[in-house]
Amino acid sequence: MNYSKTVYLAVSLTASILSSPWVHADDSLVTFKSMSPATALELAQATLASCSAQGYQVSVAVVDRMGIAQVMLRDRYAGPHTPDTARRKAWTAVSFRSDTLSLAKNTGSDSAQSGARHISGALLLGGGVPVMASGSIVGGVGVSGAPSGQADHSCAQKGVSAMVAKLELAD
Question: Is 130 in contact with 140 (CB distance < 8 Å)?
Fold first, then answer.
């Protein structure tokens, strides 16, 4: 292909992309909802309470929709590894847009998705749950320290369930 054909193709492609109906000036910025710090704290407290009610000493992390930590609570006797583990579970749930218990099951060594286990920062163990409001992810919660990933997951789900009405009314 000669130079003039290459330039013509590039200009034509650029023009067609810029004139397509899905590119508009108003698409230059996006808006989204995220939990307030007070709501993130309330979610962490509800999650910690659900774990404590079952006799589990855990850490709970709440991240915003971008995976950045908003709240970290550690129960008195939770292990020293649990704060970071909880944060990584919450980050993974937001990043993959799925709970980490399901991700753990779907990324085993014999699955086509097993490579996800090697993504830096991802922790594919039960206990991370995305937080939804009106069909959009607004954050994530992670729990670490219960006797199993299933127990961590259950605590996280109960904490989110305690907040559903408040999150849906926040629209």
Answer: yes
